[in-house]
Amino acid sequence: MTFALVVQLLKTDIMNKLHNRTMALAGLLQSATLVNQLASTGTCDTQGNQASLNSIVTNSTDVTKVFNSEKDLSTGIGSLKIALGKKTKSMQTVVFYALSLINLEKKLMKDPALLTKISNEIDSIKNQDFFEISHSNSIARLAELYKTTLGNLNPRIMIKGEQIYLSNQHTANHIRALLLAGIRAVSLWKSQGGKTWHLLINKKKTLDLLNTLEDVNK
User: Fold this and answer.
1) pLDDT of res. 197
2) Which residue of 63, 145, 146, 155 sits 20 to 30 Å from the alpha carbon of 111, by its own alpha carbon?
């Protein structure tokens, strides 16, 4: 094997790792964005919602198996691009949720009993034959799981939005289910070697990759 080929293989490996970390991070920003959409408008992006909820019951550390394509993450990719660039006021809220979820996942990893409880309940939901993951009954189960586990860890994630939507039980359930999807995305991101300081060191490379992905998926 020539030196040039070794260098090329190393570059390819580095880019693949960056791609996988970026997609997992986009999954986190997508969950946070969908939460913000629900809290502000009562609705959220349909394709992104389905992909994020599906990720909860997909037991894999392979990003391409958790999310079928970049189109499943188009909401997250767009949000991540804004978050790494010039933040809007609404994006500041999304970033706050994302950082809060990273901190919450860190606490979860220090509590094996709580992690086992969550994993067992997710397996139970995954194995049900009668409701799809996006069905209101499944969302209610995911919401209850979040509420009785992660929702008890301090500091709690305080959701900002319109009271008319926040007080709606189905919307509240949906928000909690998507917060659980956000925790899943953090776990996936960390499994790819993701660390918070990467966001600063690899900012330009990540933005270049996001621009490329947006162009491909137009």
Assistant:
1) 63
2) 63
* Region 46-75 average pLDDT: 92
CB within 8 Å of 57: residues ≥ 6 apart: 122, 125, 126, 133
Choose among 14, 132, 127, 19: nearest CA to 80.
19
Q: Which amino acid is at 164?
A: I
Q: How far apart are CA 176 and CA 105, in angstroms?
A: 14
Sign of CA dihedral 133, 147, 76, 88: positive
Q: How far is CA 5 from the centre of its chain?
A: 35
pTM: 0.88
Q: Which residue has the tokens 């970033």?
A: 95
List, for residues 199-211, the tens digit of each pLDDT value.
Answer: 666 677 777 777 7
What lies within 8 Å, CB to CB, of 107 at 6+ separation is 153
- Domains of the chain and any CATH numbers: 3-216 (1.10.3890.10)
pLDDT at 10 over 50: no
